[in-house]
Amino acid sequence: KSNAPHAATFGRMLELGDTIIEIVAPDGQPHAAAPTITRSSRGSARFRRSTLITVGAIATIAVIALVVGISALTRNSDPAAPVANVASTTATHDPSWVMRTQSHGVLQVFACQNTSEAKCTDTFQGGTGSVLDLGDGLVLTNFHVIADEKSEQPLNDLWVAVSVADEEYVPAKVVGFSACEDLAILRIVEDADSLNLAQVTLGNESSLAVGDQVVVLGYPGTVATAPSGDQQLQLTAGNISALGVVVKNYRNLLQLSAPINPGNSGGPVFDLKGRQIGVATLGESDTQGIFYAISIDQVNEVLPDLKDGKEQTGLGSCPS
């Protein structure tokens, strides 16, 4: 900071304000030229570096988002991607949401007789079923859907429509049945994991109250249209009118205002959280607006025996 002169030697770097000067000998090799840097140029350099970093970060984020989006689109468009039913644990939804989220757990059931074809061509009767266990290929339905009323025995040839849109039908075998509870468990013979199915989520009766809205999914008119594949999955909605109703040989029924028509039998009744809370069973032919479903608690009570191969007939011995 002294005003006294200083000797400048060759090769020495001098800083004058914002300017840097190198002393070079006239006949010597100069050092690498140092750029003249001012405050403004230093600021510009920092700005350029900051800008490059920001642009690079934005580009990286954009590339990641593009890759994730393409992956999601690929998964959604892949026909082989597994389908999963979605049941809500807290929120309630509308009937259309139940239809969208639970449709892959509902299928047609055909009972055939005297057929040796590769698929059901002589339909005797039929109804609807729900997928209880996808890994084991287990389907829940009504006993009267797959049984001969006269002999009270299941018919020998059973077929399940896995995907009506694709007209895909696979055979099924009876695992267990109970005439008293009007329930039966079937097993899809083919690998159910490879089919366009998803299993339902079972609820419980303790969560239900009179007035709750319910949704019935099924294939009314199954017998009339099978096995053409023309019948589409249909929805009816209504409310729970009463709990714990006894009708004929049936115990612990849910009385509903949601219509249950021939072909709906054996199909699932859902609450608005997407949980199966009943099995559609019958309607009163002489009374309008009264329909019944077997309570899911009744199903859960006998389900272990049915899975173990229980075979119970004799409606006369059923409790009344």
Structural commentary:
With 320 residues, this protein is of the alpha+beta class. The protein is 21% helix and 33% strand. It has helices spanning 39-77, 95-102, 143-146, 222-225, 296-307; strands at residues 13-16, 19-22, 106-112, 123-133, 138-141, 147-148, 153-154, 157-163, 168-178, 183-188, 201-202, 213-218, 234-247, 250-256, 268-270, 275-283, 291-295, 311-312. The chain has a six-stranded antiparallel beta barrel with strand order 3-4-5-10-9-8. Strands 12-13-14-17-16-15 form a six-stranded antiparallel barrel. It has a two-stranded antiparallel ribbon with strand order 1-2. The longest helix has 39 residues, at 39-77. The protein is elongated, with a radius of gyration of 37 Å. The chain starts with 12 loop residues before the first strand and ends in an 8-residue tail after the last strand. Residues 31-45 and 70-82 have low confidence and may be disordered.
